[in-house]
Amino acid sequence: MKSIQSRLFLMLLTFIILPYFLSILFIYGHTKNDVEQHELEISHNQMEKFSEELEKYFSDMINLPYLIYRNPDLFRIFNNGFEESIYFNPTAIEKSMESFYLMRNDIRQVRFYLDNNKESITVYNAMVSARKSQPDLMKGDLINKLYNSNLKYIIEPPHQIENYNNAAIVPQSDNTVVLTIHHKIVDVLSNEFLGIVTLDIDLDTFARICNNLVQQDKESVLLIDSDDRVIYASDPSLIGTSATRDLKQQIDTTDVDIGEDITFSKLLSEPLNQWKLVKITPSKVLLNDVRQTAYTNILVGILVGILGLLMIGIIAFSITRPIKLLSKKVRTIEGGDMEIPFDCNREDEIGHLEKHMNEMMNRINLHIEREYKLEIDNRKNQFRALKSQVNPHFLFNALQSIGAVALRSNSPKVYQLLTSLSKMMRYSIQADQWVLVRNEIDYIKTYLALQMERFQNNINYSININKKILNMEIPSMILQPLVENFFKHCYEEGFYDAHLNIYGDIQGEFLHFVVENDGSSMTHSELLSLRENIYTTSYEETHAHEHIGLKNIHDRLVLNYGPGAALELDTIQGQFFLVRIIIPLNPKVANN
């Protein structure tokens, strides 16, 4: 995999095609989960809403017979029979029964059974039938169960409408499927059984409520009573049948399983106690849009992959070929041929690169020529340096001779001063060399001794150097110019009471030297100007000879230690002047 073409193919596969298909899978999974959760939430909310509507609807239908207690004519015939009351008015009774029938549009038939006379009357299509004796009515299973229990009503599963009294008002062609509610009528005071009101109601109203849950053609809804009988279903063939074992197990499962079918179940409360409203949604219907989106993205991804392969061919032809030619030129340079022609007429990135490589080769050739000349000049300078050592040695010998004359003339003080001067000159020859901190401090002490003789011992100074740093190496003559500035800007300007402090120590990963005085100082603007002159890489003509000692120290620190070293200048409340030298101890810190 060393060729650029192979690497481009790998990069395209790794960074474009593979992440694209992974993103499709991630988006599909994320969207699928979001859609599932969204649909589940919608279905749960719908189940809650329509469950409340069903409960309200059946509550209204079940409570409808209670209106009989408020109708004196109807309640009187339940209590006393038809003809045993002096207030019996057949016309008023029929109108009351018709009014009761017409109270709800979904009532198909009403039967009033009077236990006092063992007779019943039906109302169909707002028409009242003749009375009919039904002594065996109470022997029916549902009626008998209602009579012998504390139940107020009982609901009979959907069935085909019956002609209760065999009355001519009910046509034989009426095959309507109805739901029947049998309601017990009792005396409120004595709790005596008076009769039964039977309501046959259409399935349309609560079927409409149930069907509102169905949003897709393949979804289904069921209403199951407490005896697991299907009261209503989207599939008419299931109405009136018993729920299968698999359906009951699926309904009783509390967790929603995203399998082939998703089942939502809501347990209803009074008056439909223990009834269940069930919605079944195929997962294919729920995830159809997500799958279509995934298939579309996959097809787009395949197209992107094909375009990517074509892009590799184009890149290999238009880019890799010039790169290979440029690589061949570089290998030729490695062989020692420095006169390779470069194509500088191209206007793309390759041409820009060849142009800069051509300039670089010209600079390299020029640099080689300069290095050759510098090597020659360096050897000449070394020769001159060897010759220049003759004069200092002659001067040292002359100073020693003068010192011997001073001793013979009984002038030890003169001899001591000559000795100090000789040490200083010998140390100054070591400029641009590395010395121990101990030697630099000894040189400063010698310099101070000469200055004390000059100013008649009227110099206040203190030197406090940590013993741990005395054997560390630093560039020579890096502290002495700071001490010399003290005499130049304090004593020579009349600040004879000024005090010079010199101290050094290790702080963290840095070696710190501080030279400060409490005599002369400068304003804030002067301090800023001084810093600017020292820290800039070049001077203007007006500053060419100002503060050259500080500038020299700063440049030598950066040259030897890198940007981690520093020369800091500061004043203390406009009354002191302080110079701090910071030298990194760790080479890594020095390069940061």
From TrEMBL:
GO terms for molecular function: ATP binding; phosphorelay sensor kinase activity. Residues 317-369 form the HAMP domain. InterPro entries: Bact_2-comp_sensor_kinase, dCache_1, HAMP_dom, HATPase_C_sf, Sig_transdc_His_kin_internal. It is a multi-pass membrane protein. It comes from the Bacteria. It holds the Pfam family HAMP. GO terms for cellular component: plasma membrane. It is found in: Cell membrane. The chain crosses the membrane at residues 7-28, 298-319. PROSITE patterns: HAMP (PS50885). Its main location: membrane. Keywords: ATP-binding, Cell membrane, Kinase, Membrane, Nucleotide-binding, Phosphoprotein, Transferase, Transmembrane, Transmembrane helix, Two-component regulatory system. This is Histidine kinase. It comes from Salipaludibacillus neizhouensis.
